[in-house]
Amino acid sequence: MRGITRRTVLTVTAGAVTAPAVSTAAAAAADTTTSASEGRQAAWRPNPVLRTDLVTRVTPRNNWLVTAVAIQYSHRIDLRGGAIPPSAFQVNATVGGRRTAARTVTRVYSNTAAEVDDRSDPGRPGDRLIVELDPNDSNARAAGTDPLPLDRAYSVRQVADVRTPGGEPVLKAGPFASRNNDIITPVVDDFAAGSFTDSAGFELDFRLYQPEGFVRDPHRRTRYPLVVTLHGGGEVADNNMTQLTANRIAVTFAEPERQRRNPAFVLSPQIPLPRPMDGPDGTDWTDAKVQAALIELIDTFVSEHARSVDTDRLYVVGLSSGGRGIYSLLAKRPEVFAAALPTAGWGDAAAMERIRHIPMWADHSVDDPVVPYREGRFGKPGTWTLMNALETAGAPVSRGEWANGLPKAQFEARSRELLRQARAARSHVLFTSYTPGTTPVNPHFAWAQTYENDVVIDWLFEQSR
Predict the structure, then answer these.
(1) 294-300, Cβ contacts within 8 angstroms, sequence gap of 24 or more
(2) pLDDT digits (tens, 9 = 90+) for 47-71
(3) Kindly report the CA angle at 144 between 141 and 149, in degrees rounded to 5?
(4) CB atoms within 10 A of CB 437
(5) Phi and psi at residue 189, in whole multiples of 5°?
(6) 33-35 and 182-184 as β-strands: parallel, antiparallel, unpaired?
């Protein structure tokens, strides 16, 4: 099941009929302009707006943001090499019940699809106009604890005429503002939504990404890895969405480039409300009811896809309480998973003996105030202490420490060097610590770089039981 967003038609403010285009003969005559430089007349061609969509993006540190508005016109837009100034469009947003406030327009260009073009010289002639917005705007967010109500929350109005460099008319400004109905979130929209009720009657919602090769031919005998993602405590909810949009723990594995390199199933369950807590450290994924349902969900998914899942390449990744869930899950099922990526987690030191054989790349900020690096939570130690316990149990741990705010190239260079050391030492457990004061936004958010790190993700997919 793909493309789960709602597809609806354009609505405009003040009950306007269609779009900011004038189509009567008298109006067309009134819109005729004279180009003195060329000594000829050029008439505005009506080009009605068909629909307006918000384009959103899941970012590493700032969660889920509205990054553009995509306007679809009835006819192709050709700027003849010209550029549209950002001042030609005004965009306003009413988000989360707050008053309407302007968004900052940064770039405007035509395109063939409702998608942002990240190139320095973006766009191509097409029937869409992409109005990019500043992600640092205070009202750029698409979600709080739950997705914000964004239907018809944005209005966009063209306030200046658009012409080619030669003065030919392309799009005429008008008095009407169009409002969005649809919300497009690349990659997230490719996850199917589902639910699973276990044998005890406990229900877990989940999202599932299915590799393109499997979708094209489910009967083909091709086996794909399975990546199970365990979200943090902040994503415990009933929306079956924020486990994908609050951070990039799941999205990174479904990105087109990553799927081209490592096609895989991505299974992303969500813990429901009211928050299950069984005992002082029954934290989310270690709650008895939740963990039993999680294990049964994984087993059932693998059984139902026996022809298509590579059971030697099951991976589990998680952050914060999801990291706690990893250490507990691995100890309960030490024969199932090929590798794990626990970030900012905590767990039972005594359980490390049972998982010493499992390849693992853990990371944690030294100055984490939410899950302390050494002490952990609820009397269960943090990552530093767990890595020591793994070494005591006989698993050599390769350790590195650097700043979490390094540019991607430098960050990956440090990761590559740590991996080189691990291979030289025949170590299958790696541990990255982040120097105090270097993790942006909040020291607990150590995972912002983890899932952007191609060295770590490549390493994960290399592991096999």
Answers:
(1) 294/204, 294/269, 294/325, 294/329, 295/329, 295/332, 295/333, 296/196, 296/198, 296/199, 297/196, 297/198, 297/204, 297/206, 297/267, 297/269, 298/226, 298/228, 298/267, 298/336, 300/196
(2) 999 999 999 999 998 899 999 999 9
(3) 75
(4) 12
(5) -65, -15
(6) unpaired
What are the helix (H) ranges across 61-132? none
Q: What is the pTM of this model?
A: 0.88
**Tokens at residue 55, please?**
């384009």
Closest CA to 336 of 345, 344, 326, 346: 326
Residue 58: which of 216, 285, 297, 229 has the closest Cα?
229
Residue whose tokens read 């306003």: 92
DSSP 8-state class, residue 456: H
Using the CB atoms, write b or e for 362-375: b if 16+ within 10 Å: bbbbbebeebbbee
Euclidean distance between CA atoms 303 and 290, whole angstroms: 20
Task: Check if the beta carbon of residue 80 is closer than 8 Å to that of residue 164.
Answer: yes
Question: Inter-axis angle of helices 288-304 and 321-332, to 10 degrees?
Answer: 70
Among 249, 199, 258, 196, which Cα is nearest to 225's? 258
Do residues 34 and 167 lie in contact, with contact meaning Cβ atoms separated by under 8 Å? no
pLDDT digits (tens, 9 = 90+) for 292-341: 999 999 999 999 999 999 999 999 999 999 999 999 999 999 999 999 99
In this predicted model, what pLDDT tens digit does every residue of 250-298 receive, in sequence order?
A: 999 999 999 999 999 999 999 999 887 776 777 889 999 999 999 999 9
Burial of 120 (0-12, 13-18, 19+ CB in 10 A): exposed
Closest by CA position to 171, among listed 157, 185, 181: 157
For residue 401, what are the CA distances in angstroms to 69, 417, 460? 41, 11, 20
